[in-house]
Structure formats: structure tokens, C-alpha cells
Amino acid sequence: MPRRSAALVLTACLALGLGTSPGHATPAADPYPAVGAGTRFLDQDRLLGDLPEPGWFKANIPFVDLPDAQVQEIYYYRWKVFQEALRNTGPREGWLVSEFLGPVGYSAPNGGIVAAAGHHVYEGRWLRDTRYLDDYLRYWLRGSGAGPKPATEFLNKNTTDWAHQYSSWLADATVARASVTGDWRFATGLLPELRRHWDRWSPQFDTGTGLYWQTPVWDAMEYTASSYQSPDPYHGGDGFRPTLNTYQIADARAIAALSRRTGDHTTAAYFTQRARELSAAQEKWLWDANSAFYKHVMRDDNPDRRKIADREQIGFVPWAFHTAPAANAPAWAQLTDPQGFDAPYGPPTVERRSRWFMHEADRGCCRWDGPSWPYATSQTLTGLANLLIDYPRQSIVDKDDYYTALRRYALTQYKNGRPHVAEAHHPDRPQWMYDTPGHSQDYNHSTYTDLVLSGLLGVRPQPDSSVLLHPLTPADWTHFALENLPYHGRNLTVLWDKDGTKYQQGKGFRVYLDGKLVATRPTPGPLRVPVPDGSRQPLPHLVDDAANPTGQGHPAATASYANPGDEPRRANDGQNHFLDVPTTRWTSYRSANPQDWLAIDFGRPTTVSDVRLYFYDDRGGVQPPAAFALQHRHSDGSWQDIPTQHRAPATPIGNDLTRITFPPLETTALRVVGTPRPGAAFGLTAFQSWRAP
Fold first, then answer.
1. Which helix (H) or strand (E) holds 100?
2. Second CATH level (architecture) for the domain 68-445
3. Domain 6-29+540-691 falls in which CATH fold?
């Protein structure tokens, strides 16, 4: 029998989905950041359950073990939500964090919406892979997110750039993130852009009050108690608000802190003074001593600058940024007042005693006059944690109130017994009110994991080489754990085990750095722990040449067949998740072909060596293929199997990463040819081609 050629053997292996021996190609660096030295007390597989692509979570997130099953379940669910919101926009700008799973008509280029950018940074600062937020902050401060936009009523007529379409707190978030990563060089490198971003709010500065004005809708809050008291409930209600003014105070303080790190004390002094002036103006005009709350003040037809009568949830915002003085703590009595903001699925966005409470709220999205809104709930819980940990002791609220509010927030995030977060929830019923199919699912417009980590478990990042631990956990909890939280280049683990039987590491409150015990105390409580900076090896900068979030031009996706709704362009749209609605996948569902293919045409010669495929699996009509071949377009126009492949894993699996690496070659296109399993089609949620720029 004639000897088969090596090429034929290789082709046969590829067709069978067997791959080639690891010895034929040197695998590229790991696709995920290395966790490094740490503890292994928790069962990560059990905690992750059926989350797709478990390798991403194991490499990136801090693991928690909590006695409260719902608070814990939503913690891992919200990390999935955040992962789904990561969108790669291609080689020029890289990653951004999206708000909706699908594009909306009022977003900045490639789908960015600045309204929740501060939330995104606070949430994502705990990830081990720092490249996501590096790109994201550059997008808003240097990239197309900072670029020009039309000054129209639909897109905000008050501003001419995307980064000011909505209120935000980018400088404060930059500092909050650096306090976790310890990478102050990246943060200070953004100082010119952060200063420019702060200054560009000047057209909305009012010299008479010394405050900034904002339209509620551009605080991301249309149809509010304040805007209803104007001729235009949707786009009206211009006023001086404790949102944008607080953000500007916090951002000025952040710019001052970063400037001091560079030795620029002149700039630091200027922004410190601006923050003081704004704080004084906010206390003068927005703090209502009679009702003990921060309130909206109408800008127009209000010569005396009278405050509106209603307490809106935005009155808690100053505590979320440490801009409220300690003497104003009585405002928090409203959180537990049955006529204030107390609600089983709250807090609501306006107090119950307001005449505008739930006004027209059942007419459809979006009315922020009573419904429970995760965006605002995040800010309120952040402010409450700050009050309890960073302010002088007071007798109005305590850590049990924090846990109650956090647990209520967790319980809102269910639908039909499954984790779910949408746009707004009824304050009194287990019902999502604004939850448009194909639009609102897994709505990434708030924080939750940050509230568990920095609030409930009390990890308080510090600007120096230390961390403050101050848990707000219930006194009757006998255990909890936080494992391998990335902090200043180290892995931080915290255990509470009342009698030592839960984790088998001894009794008490125990703190570990890189797997070594460094501090203990008998019970959970305030504990400052030195954290010498660890070695932070920079992660390689990579670009995905296949990504095309707009679907226009190149790289262009085509296929031998596509199920209606599962267009080829969905496989290289820069997002990767495994949900049915909205789709971000291509499938060959209902195809009669014995094989089908999906191709990515780069439009120019491109070097390829690291292809990452994510096969979709709905456990039904679409499953990973029985076998697949990865091919490239040869210079003569023919399709040829890529030689010397290393596949991990060797057999394709669904809803997870299948990675193919090989020696670099130049081509104008790549193609995956799949042989479906009997009775099933196959599909891809993502087709990526990574390289170093």
C-alpha cells in the first residue's frame, strides 16, 4: 500500500477534528492572564455552575463564598453580564464595555454610551485582565468616544462630543481603578485628557450659583419628578442637580490627586480649590435643611432658586463620592422610611410621598419617578457603604441596613426563577417593568459585584501600599470567603470561619497574600493590611483582525448558508455571548448541506497565527460540529488547510473557547469548514484572529 504524504495525513486529521500533535507547533501564550500564587480553598467549578467559558472567569474574577445563596448567585451572574458586555472594536481602539447587548441608535461610535461608563470602570476594576479597561478609558478620553457628535435634540443639543452626551465620573473612576491595580502610571498618563474632559463641562456652568446645570434626560433620567414639573417631561427640567455637580467635585479631586503624584502641585491646588468651591455651592443651593436632603433646583423660571419639594434618589449621590459632609447624615433616614425610599424591590427613584411617585410609570419605558433602577440603586448602595465605613459613626443606619438593601437589590435580579437584570423593576412587586425582548436582557448599566466586594465584604482600596478590610456582613454569618482578588499585583484572600470547620484553615478572620497568611483577628472587623506592590508583568497587547462591529466593509464575513437572523456578520461583530436573544451568532440551522463554512475576508494580506473559535451549543438543533477544518486563502485563490496546527481542546466544544495556533502565515482570508453532528447544525458566536500589532 502506498505511503500517504504528510499533507494527506494532516488533512485527514483536520477533517476528523483531531488536530495535530502539540509538538508540531509551539502554542502561543495563554489566552487568559495567569492567576499566579494564591489560595485554593474554594471549589471554583461548583461556584461557576453552568457559566460558559469557565476558563475566563477562573483567570479573571475574585471568587466568593457566601451564606446567602441569592446574593452569591447574582454575584456570579453579574460577572457573566459584564463579560457579555465586552466588545472588541478592532485593531484601532480595541475593547469597550457596552450597555446593551445589541446596538442602539443613540450610541457613540462602535456602541459606547458614556452614561454608565463610571459604573463599568468601578465594576471592571476587579478583573485580572487590565486590557479591557485600559482600552475603554482611552476610548472615552482619546478615541472616538471623545470625538465630535451632532448637537441635536435626540443626541443632546447641549454638547458636541460623545463623552459629554451624558453625565459621567471618568476621572474619579480612573483613580478608583488605579487604587485596585496599583498602576498609577497609566492613570497619570491620562491627566491631560482628564483635565480636558473636566473643562468641557464649562458651557453648563452657571456663574450666579457656582454650579453646573444638567437636563435630567442627559443624567440618563428622563421623565423624572423634576422634569415632570417643566413643560417637557422628556427633554425638559434643566436644573442644578446633585449628580453632575457631585461628579465634577469628585473628578476635580481625582485630577488633583493624580497631579500631586506627578509633582504638579500648581494643578493640584487649582483643582482642589475648584472642588471646594463646588462643594460649598452645592451645600448652599442643593442641600435642603428643612427636609434634610439634596434636591434638584430648576434653572428656568425660578429666580429665587427654590428647590423642588420632592426628594429624588439622586439626593443620595453625594455620599457615593464622599462629597457630602458628615452633618448631613440624617438624609439616610429616608432610606428606611415607609413614605420615603423603603420598598421590597427598591429603593424607588423618588420618595413615595411625592405626587409624582409612579406617575405614568406603567405607560412604558422609561420613567424614573418611582421604578427601581439598578443604575441609581448602585449609587445609593455605594453611598451607604461609604457612610458606614468612611464617615464618623452615626445612629441613623447600620450595616444591617446595607445588607437588607443589597439583598433586596439581588432579589430584583430574577425573572421566572432565573438570574436576570433589565432596565427597571417595580418597587413593590417581583416584576421587571422595562424589559424589552431583544433589548433589555442582561442590561449592563449598574454595578453589583463591586457592591459585594467593596461594600459587603469591605475591601477598601487605598492609594498607598495597603488595603483596608471593613466587612459589612451580618453578625450572624458564621463564614464567608473572598479568594484571589487581584490587588496591587498580588492575590488577596479573606476568610471568616467562626469555628474553623468550614474552610479547615483555623478559626477567625484570616487574610492571605499570594497564598501566605499575613493577618488575623478573632472576628470580622476593620483591619488595615500592608500590601507591598507585586510584580505586574504587562499583558501582551493584541489586536483582533477579524473584528468588525459595524458589519460594514472589511473584515467581511460570508458563509455557505445562514439561518435567517443568524447572519455571518454576527460571528465577527466583536461581541461574544451565548444567548438566544439578541443574536450574536452565525448558524447553519436548517441547512441541507453535508458541510458548511464561514469565512472572514480581511480585504488585504494579513498575518495570522492565533485563531479563536467559539462554537454555539443550544443543546438542541445547534451543536459543535463533529469535525472542522481551518483553512486560509492561498495566493492562487484556492482554499487550503492551515498546516502545523495546535488545537486546544483537540475536539471542539460548545459555548467555550476552541483555540488554534500555528506558525505565522500571511493570507487575505480564513475559513472554517464544519461537518455537523447527525441531526444538528453548527454555528459560531465568535471568530477571532489575534496578533501582536
1. none
2. Alpha/alpha barrel (1.50)
3. Jelly Rolls (2.60.120)
